[in-house]
Structures are given as C-alpha cells and as structure tokens.
Amino acid sequence: MIPFLDLKKINDQYKDELNEACRRVIDSGWYIQGKELASFEEQFAQYCGTKYCIGVANGLDALTLTLRAWKELDILAEGDEVIVPANTYIASILSITENDLVPVLVEPDPDTYNLSIEGIKKATTAKTKAILPVHLYGQISPMDEIMSYAHSHNLLVLEDCAQSHGASIDHKKCGNWGHAGAFSFYPGKNLGALGDAGAITTNDETLATTLKALRNYGSHKKYENLYQGVNSRLDEIQAAMLSVKLKYLDTETKQRQLVAQTYIEGIKNPLIKLPKVAEQAAHVWHLFTIEVEDRDRLVAYLTEKGIQTLVHYPIPPHMQQAYKGMFTGEYPITESIHKNILSLPLSPVISSQEIDSVISALNNYK
Ligand SMILES: *Cc1c(COP(=O)(O)O)cnc(C)c1O
Q: Where is the signal peptide (predicted)?
C-alpha cells in the first residue's frame, strides 16, 4: 500500500528531539502562554520575514480573529465585502461569514487554482474592503500584483497560508505580502504540530497587539478586558513541537519539490492534466493535484494497485448545505475543478520506488 500521507513516518524522523522537547515542557510546569510559545512566535516571524507572529489555536481561528481584529479596530464593518476564491477550502469562507462580512466568491485561474488579478478586478464593488487570497495546494498567489491593486483601491489583504508555509515570490515569503497572513499547523500541513495549532503573521504592531488580546478573552492585561475575546491559544507543548519541526521545514519543502518535479517529468498520459507552476519557489507542494475526467474510474484503478489518493475537495463551498441559498452566482470553473481534481501521494518521506509505482500506474491507465 502506498499511503497518501504517512504522518507517523514524518514525525518518526524527529522522535528523539520531539520527546526531548516534550519532556522539557512537562518539567517546566508551565503549559500555556509561556517561553515555548514566545520562542516559536519569534522563530516563525523570523522565518516568514515579518515583525510579529501571534500563535492561536488553529488555522480557522487565525483567519477569523484577524478579520475580527480589523472590525474591533474599525477598519472593517459588518456587511463589507471580502473577495475570496470560490474553490477554496471552506474555512476561508467560514472566517468571513463568522464576522458578518460578505464573501464574494471569485472563480480561480484554472491553471494555478488561485485568484487572478482579472478575477479580483471584476468582483470589486464600492463595498469591497478586503481580499483573502488562498495559496491553494502550496502555490503562492500573484501577491505582487494583488498588493499593488490592493494599495491603489485601499483594500486590506489577508493571506490564507494554511497550505503554503515557506512559498515565496522573489524571496519574499507568503504571510509577509499581505497586511496579515493566517497559518494552520494542523498535523497534515507542511509545518504540522502534533495536534491543532495556528498563527498570524503581520508587520502591523496594532494588529498584533489586538490579536494577542483577542486570543486571550480579549484581555491585554491580566483580568482587564478590552474586547469580548475568545480562548484561542497555542499550547506550550505544541509550540515546542513546532520549534523542532520548523528547523526541518526547508529540507522537507525541497523533498516535496523533488517529488513534484519527478511526477511532472514522469507522468505522460493525455487523459491526465498536470498542475502548472508559475515559479519553482512559488510552490511548496502541500498537495500534488491532477485533473482527470471520470475521476471515480481512476480512483478505483489506483486503489486496486494499492495507491491511496484523496480529493481536495469534493464539494465546493457554494454547494455546501451550510451555505444553502447564499450564493446565487455561477461558478463553472470551480465546479469543474471539484469534479475532476485528484491528489496523488506526496510527502517528504515517500520513497523513490513508491513515486515510480505511482508514475507507471498513471502512465498505464487507459
Ligand atoms: C487547513 C486549512 C484551514 C484551516 O486550518 P485549521 O488549522 O484546520 O483550522 C484554512 N484554510 C485552508 C486553505 C486550509 O487548508
């Protein structure tokens, strides 16, 4: 069996260091908002090139709390429109609706699966106040163009970096382009904790201070509350796990890029559409997705050969029961992506034999 993603194998590589870090936290007697979190926040900010990093409980909270902070700071208000790709994972959209903002779904570029500047332009109205680009599958959106558009139209930009840790354009990393970047450290993400975790990166001190209060009951000072906040903190133990794994992120990214390159060079089948890369460093390959008509038939064929695949994602947000009646537009590109997309096994620990087996199975598919 070739697993889609072998998390145990990934974490086994760092078992001694992870155990040691765990022991350090246990022995410290301090488990929430202590040295481990402060240290990880500093390292991750440095990694992304930003002034601040604010750890929170998960990626959805990173998105939701950033929009909430902008509301608290009177930069956003209920009913403001936020441009977001129609084909994103539903969390990006949940963060908008949770804040009583209005998601404006935009069809992605069918080659990169990300927002394009043309799509953003067409969707902009007098009510547009923010753009939420999602660097889907690990490829960074055209942030240089998006930021110059945002500046000229006075729009906020919140990057959804949940799948794109370390992806960059001209050496400037995701999370450092927008006014803020939201990260998830869900175990299966490129930088994964051993449980739930997330963070926001930003260069804006006021936003950072507001987020630090919001994640901790709205409290900026013990037992004094500026906001009606939430409890969304990144535990010491997860911060310690993440500090270990951050050291290996770039190596793992290179391994992912090598696997992707091998797939791109090896898979030659006219029935299969391969992903397109704008620039090598721009893609950190959280997922390697192909498109194929009659996807179920290919999935069955690969399953029989012992190759596990997954679909990211089977139902687009506008067709989810949760958003019934909310979106009236037509999204043919998004619907076709959801119908045809398939993710192949890809991880830093997949072996070259496994890669070869996947390639030859795909090349023999008729
Ligand atoms: C995983 C993910 C999230 C949510 O992150 P969690 O940590 O699971 O809450 C948000 N956006 C995208 C694009 C994701 O892939």
A: none
Of 56, 58, 60, which is best to mutate to test ligand 1, by the most ligand atoms within 8 angstroms of its C-beta? 60
Q: Evaluate whether 238 touches 195 at the Cβ level (below 8 Å).
A: yes
By 3-state DSSP, what share of the chain in percent is helix, strand and coil, each rounded to 5?
45, 15, 40
Question: Quick one: pLDDT at residue 95?
Answer: 98
**β-strands 219-221, 341-344: how paired?**
unpaired
Domains and CATH numbers, the chain: 7-243 (3.40.640.10), 249-364 (3.90.1150.10)
User: How confident is the model over 61-118, as pLDDT tens digits?
Assistant: 999 999 999 999 999 999 999 999 999 999 999 999 999 999 999 999 999 999 999 9
pTM above 0.90, yes or no: yes
Active site residue 305: no
Give the closest residue to 183 by CA, choosing from 163, 212, 157.
163
Looking at the predicted structure, is the pLDDT value of residue 246 above 90?
Answer: yes
Q: pLDDT > 70: what percent of the chain?
A: 100
Q: Please give all residues whose beta carbon lies within 6 A of any atom in ligand 1, as ranges.
A: 58-60, 88-89, 91-92, 134, 160, 162-163, 184, 186, 196, 198
Q: Are 44 and 246 in contact (CB under 8 A)?
A: yes
Residue nearest to atom 7 of ligand 1 (CA): 59
